[in-house]
Each structure stands twice: as structure tokens, then as C-alpha cells.
Design a protein that fits this description.
With 227 residues, this protein is α/β, with parallel strands linked by helices. The protein is built from 8 helices and 11 strands. It has helices at 29-38, 53-61, 76-83, 104-115, 129-132, 174-180, 187-192, 196-201, and strands at 3-9, 23-24, 27-28, 45-50, 66-68, 91-94, 120-128, 139-142, 148-152, 162-173, 206-210. β8 (139-142) and β9 (148-152) form a beta hairpin.
């Protein structure tokens, strides 16, 4: 099974302009992510999908592969869908470009779920009730088949000692990915500001795998201190 790893990267972030090019230990952030992806065993190829020539030049500079996409995309999912159109692959993994220390085993875990037939695959990590209080942490509940029932910024379930934090990596069968981009924005997606709720509202199954790893996501310049 051919699986393409795509790292969506845009320059014009409202909270952190030029984030993919921020230097960490002398390398741009996007290079750290790219090199971590190359360590994964299940990916046939790794690609940066960007709408900015500066990011493309940086990727070219460290010998990586990239594709230029439209700037109007509202999500990484949409950018991945455009980027993979001309590639003869079976599935795509959308890898966050702002996690410079992403663990390659997580990428392979998502790939294995796709190989076993999952339409859409993602990950979650167990967290405690105190950590779960933050609305910036997206929680997920799943059924006995490990399929997502719901994602929320609120506490779900309401009373629990253990919660599951959603880890923002997605794998899709290529045919499913193309269909997702045609779905209209949904009610729950707008209320929670979570695009994956659009997929659930349209009866797509999201397989959730559990992971012990959690990498630092760089959303603002202050987050660099967490590294």
C-alpha cells in the first residue's frame, strides 16, 4: 500500500507569521518535521504542501520535496487533497508542520490503521482531569470499536477521572480525502471550531488509536520555550 506523507505549511499564520521558517537549533522548523517523517517506515514519500515560495525555497534548500498549492485553503485537509491529486497513492497522512519533535512511530501507527482498512485514522492520548479542563485541548470519546463518537473543547464525558486528548494527525484513504473536501461546513464544526466534526456529521468513521507520545505544538513564539 502506497502512503504519502504530506506536511501542510503556510507562511501567513495569524498568531505566528512565518512559523515554518523559524530556526530551531539552526534548522527551520519545517526541516525538523520533514526529517522526523523520513524516519517513518510506512511512508512511500514525504512532501511539503505550501502556498509560499519562501517555504518552498527552504524545503528545496535542505533537499526536501514540495508542491505549491492554492492559498485559499481553509484547512490542512483541503491543502492535502489538492497536493495528492497527481500522485498514484492509496492513502495520505496529514502531518502537522508545527510539531518539530513529532514521533515517527505515531506516523506508522496511523499508517497501520489505514492499511487495515480505516477510512480516516487519528490518535489520542490519555490525560488527567485537570489537564482536560483547558478548552485549548480537544477531547475525544470513542466507542468499543475505537471509532470516534465526538470531539469537543468541553469536558467529555462530563464526569470522569480519565480523558483522551486528540492528537492532530490524520490519515485518509485517498478516495475518502477527496470526498471530504466536497462536504459543506457543518453546524457542529462551526460551534466547536473542529473540522473533523463535519466528517462525523456526514457519517464518516474516524478510527482512533491510542498513543503514549505527545509532541509540543508550536502555535505562538512563546511555545518555543516549551522545547
Amino acid at each position: 500500500m502506497k502512503i504519502l506523507g504530506i506536511i501542510p505549511a503556510r507562511y501567513a499564520s495569524t498568531r505566528f507569521q512565518g512559523k515554518p521558517l523559524t530556526l530551531i537549533d539552526g534548522k527551520p522548523m519545517i526541516q525538523h518535521v520533514y526529517e522526523r517523517c523520513l524516519q517513518a517506515q510506512r511512508l512511500s514519500q514525504v512532501l511539503v504542501a505550501t502556498d509560499d515560495e519562501r517555504i518552498a525555497d527552504a524545503v528545496k534548500g535542505f533537499g526536501g520535496k514540495y508542491i505549491l498549492t492554492k492559498s485559499a485553503h481553509q484547512s490542512g485537509t483541503d491543502r492535502c487533497a489538492e497536493a495528492c491529486q497527481d500522485f498514484q497513492v492509496d492513502a495520505v497522512i496529514n502531518i502537522q508542520g508545527d510539531e518539530p519533535k513529532i514521533n515517527h512511530e505515531q506516523i506508522d501507527q496511523v499508517a497501520d490503521m489505514l492499511i487495515k482498512g480505516a477510512e480516516i485514522a487519528t490518535l489520542a492520548k490519555e490525560i488527567d482531569a485537570t489537564t482536560a479542563q483547558s478548552p485549548n485541548i480537544v477531547k475525544v470519546v470513542k466507542d468499543k470499536r475505537n471509532m470516534a463518537l465526538y470531539f469537543s473543547r468541553s469536558l467529555i464525558p462530563y464526569r470522569s477521572d480519565v480523558y483522551f486528548k486528540h492528537i492532530g494527525i490524520y490519515g485518509y484513504q485517498k478516495a475518502i480525502l477527496q470526498k471530504l473536501t466536497l462536504l459543506p461546513v457543518s453546524f457542529l464544526e462551526v460551534k466547536e471550531r473542529l473540522e473533523q466534526l463535519r466528517w462525523l456529521e456526514n457519517a464518516y468513521e474516524i478510527h482512533v488509536g491510542l498513543t503514549m507520545y505527545e509532541s509540543v505544538s508550536i502555535d505562538t513564539p512563546d511555545d518555543l520555550l516549551k522545547l
